[in-house]
Write a structure and sequence with these properties.
30% helix, 7 helices, CBS-domain, CBS domain
């Protein structure tokens, strides 16, 4: 692929650098992989989801931290019809602290479950040759923050909205005194 400064493949996070697991691996591995990629001070995660691959390295889904947390604490966070609490919904968060011990045990039971059981089916994929603005438009319309990037059907990696912002943002700022505006 030729680099001309106007294609998503130039800002893609390669698959070997983007967190991913195979569908048969346990949720505990997903947690370890996401926690292992954080800021130097350990307070901020670099990624909020992983790609899930099958045994042939094909994308079959993604697993977000939201999916993981819901799987770990289903009695508290599940959106099903059953509820742990009766009464006003506004007070649910105030009462959540009462389930701390139960939630810890529930979380530990879920750690060995397969990531494939909790993943969401694949995002829409984008071709690496499209312009970053096209990828941004898809993300905004589909309410996604990460898209898988492919080239002729082969998964290359991911492009995130924050990477598009980093790429597009400098084009949209006013230059300070004595600073040249980036050429397009």
């Amino acid at each position: 692929m030729k680099k001309d400064g106007n294609a998503v493949f130039e800002i893609v996070i390669p698959l070997d650098q983007y967190p991913h697991l195979y569908e048969h691996e346990p949720l505990g591995d997903a947690v370890a992989k996401l926690l292992g990629q954080c800021s130097d001070d350990g307070c901020h995660l670099h990624y909020d989801e992983l790609f899930i691959l099958d045994s042939e390295n094909c994308l079959v889904g993604h697993l977000s931290i939201r999916d993981i947390l819901i799987s770990f604490f289903p009695s508290l966070l599940s959106q099903g019809s059953s509820s742990v609490y009766a009464g006003k919904k506004e007070q649910l968060t105030d009462l959540a602290i009462l389930l701390v011990g139960t939630s810890d045990r529930e979380c530990q039971r879920q750690v060995d479950h397969r990531v494939g059981d909790y993943m969401t089916r694949p995002h829409r994929v984008v071709e690496g040759r499209i312009h970053p603005l096209q990828a941004l438009e898809i993300m905004i319309k589909d309410k996604e923050t990460t898209l898988p990037v492919v080239d002729r059907g082969m998964l290359l990696g991911a492009v995130r909205m924050m990477d598009l912002f980093r790429y597009l943002g400098p084009r949209c700022t006013l230059p300070t005194t004595g600073e040249q505006q980036p050429e397009s």
